Amino acid sequence: MLAILDAQEMQKADQYTQDTLKVSGLVLMEKAALALLSYIRKTYEGAGRIGILCGSGNNGGDGLALARLLTDEKIDVTVFLVGNPSHFSASARIQYEAAVAYQIPFAKTIRELETCDVFVDAMLGTGADRPLTGQYLEAVRWLNASGRPVVAVDLPTGISASSGQVLGEAVLCSDTVTFGFYKIGQILYPGRSYCGKLKRRRIGITARSLEDKPKVFCMEEHDVKNLLPSRFSDSHKGDYGKLLAVCSDVGMAGAGILAAKASLAMGVGMVKVMTEEANRIILQTSVPEALYAPFDEKELTEDTWASAIMIGPGLGQKRGAKELVRCALSDPKRPLLLDADAINLIALDEELMQLLDRMAKKKEIVLTPHLMEMSRISGCDIHTLKENGIEKARTFAMQHHVTLVLKGACTICALASGEIYLNTTGNSGMATAGSGDVLSGMISALMASGLSGGIAAPLGVYLHGLCGDYARDVYSSRSMKASHLIEMLPRVLLLLG
């Protein structure tokens, strides 16, 4: 897992590296410039002229150091200073003086950059904390109107590093090279869409100073192999978990089918779908590997077969659905995943909400709401959830002792401990009916196999998004459907080892 920092944490990590580890700011700046040089040479090999827009802070210093290195490589470069040069940071001033000594050309007006093939945005980076004005705003508008590729140094100018919000206007970049750690504003939308291709480069900054604080993380590919339940040659199906999936009112059989198929593809040993009698034939025809049981409160209450329970996909809010949710919640110890109408029913019933709070102290409970469902159960309006998703998800998870999966373009997994996992996989093709049912099947399969909700949730979300990325490359984001995610899961697991 990789830590993701906000602006304040990044500043603290940078300062700790310099003050405690005695790595000077100029050394870090030089390493950042070398990383930028390597990326630009590889990505824009044929660029004839490069224009670098530099602010007066350390982000501008990175840009000035890059200009010097590009000059050493005999690459035509021109610098335009944005803002007030008298406000240079100490390191940026040294880089400016070196650039002058190198006789690097400085443009007097931004229009002198019109013949450049590629631009570098080294204006503010993570330092932006208010709406842009003056020269910075003019430069952002000019870059966006240029029609040329723009490489951001650390973060596009105009994006909040801590929230991903656009501070009035921002540079729409083709590439972003970030240093040390990802920033929250690069992962959350809308900031994520302004970064273009996001590449992280290590330059020696450490986050040791942040060890005592709950952090934000993202999963990486190498985490998957380490976290997935092991499989053994002398095992049997019971060793890999038994999932009871309570799904699908009349007319909603597809939700249960998708959830069951996804759980089996995720590796659960057995799955039993409890559903309406009317769904039996289509269910057993579509998923012959699954067991079947009709909706029955008594059977759900007395069941001892399953190692985990999932309830909600296609459940509806009639025909005893509330009592089924009550029975699932009341089970004394088995891990439980709540999705869709299970969440809606709890949101509508204070008694069920109190039951959730009591049982979450005794067993693992995972909730997987989308924004509307989260709004209902938390009481927060959707705008607030979009603006402050991390804090609202963290607060809910900690208050109710649950793992919360707030589904969206960047899904947020909040643990009861206060830790947050932001998902970096997935694409717009996953905005399609049934995608959430697949996710519920995947996460609950991992829980049935023995993983805690705090691991199963971010792992399942990461794999779900990765399946979406593979499916996009085969079917396109426009033509993808939920069943394609299940189709891709074996390929993803095979390639990840």
Layout of SSEs?
Blueprint (H helix, E strand, L loop, with lengths): L1 E4 L1 H13 L5 H19 L5 E6 L3 H15 L3 E6 L8 H12 L16 E5 L11 H13 L3 E4 L21 E5 L2 E2 H4 L3 H5 L1 E5 L14 E3 L2 H7 L14 E5 L6 H13 L4 E6 L4 H7 L4 E4 L2 H6 L5 E4 L9 H10 L5 E3 L2 H8 L1 H11 L4 E3 L3 H8 L3 H6 L1 H12 L2 E4 L5 E3 L5 E3 L12 H14 L4 H23 L6 H15 L1
Helix pairs in contact: 2-3, 3-4, 9-18, 9-20, 12-14, 13-14, 13-15, 18-19, 18-20, 19-20
In short:
The chain has 20 helices and 18 strands. It has 497 residues and is an alpha/beta fold. It has two domains: 24-209, YjeF N-terminal domain (Rossmann fold); 221-496, Ribokinase (UDP-N-acetylmuramoyl-L-alanine:D-glutamate ligase).
Mean pLDDT: 96
* Alpha-carbon Rg, integer: 26 Å
User: Which strands sit side by side, in order, in the main sheet?
Assistant: 7-1-9-18-17-16-15-14-13-10-11-12
Strand content: 15-25%
| CATH architecture field of the largest domain | 3-Layer(aba) Sandwich
CATH class of the largest domain: Alpha Beta
Query: Which runs of at least 5 residues are low in confidence (pLDDT < 50)?
Result: none
Number of domains: 2
Describe what you observe in this structure.
The protein has two domains: 24-209, YjeF N-terminal domain (Rossmann fold), CATH 3.40.50.10260; 221-496, 3-Layer(aba) Sandwich (UDP-N-acetylmuramoyl-L-alanine:D-glutamate ligase). The longest helix is centred in the C-terminal third of the chain and has 23 residues, at 453-475. The mean pLDDT is 96. α12 (321-330) links the parallel β13 and β14. The chain contains 20 helices and 18 strands. A twelve-stranded mixed sheet has the order 7-1-9-18-17-16-15-14-13-10-11-12, sandwiched between helices. Strands 3-2-4-5-6-8 form a six-stranded parallel sheet, with helices on one face. The chain has helices spanning 7-19, 25-43, 58-72, 90-101, 134-146, 184-187, 191-195, 221-227, 253-265, 280-286, 297-302, 321-330, 341-348, 350-360, 371-378, 382-387, 389-400, 435-448, 453-475, 482-496; strands at 2-5, 49-54, 76-81, 118-122, 150-153, 175-179, 182-183, 197-201, 216-218, 242-246, 270-275, 291-294, 308-311, 336-338, 365-367, 403-406, 412-414, 420-422. The protein is of the alpha/beta class and 497 residues long.
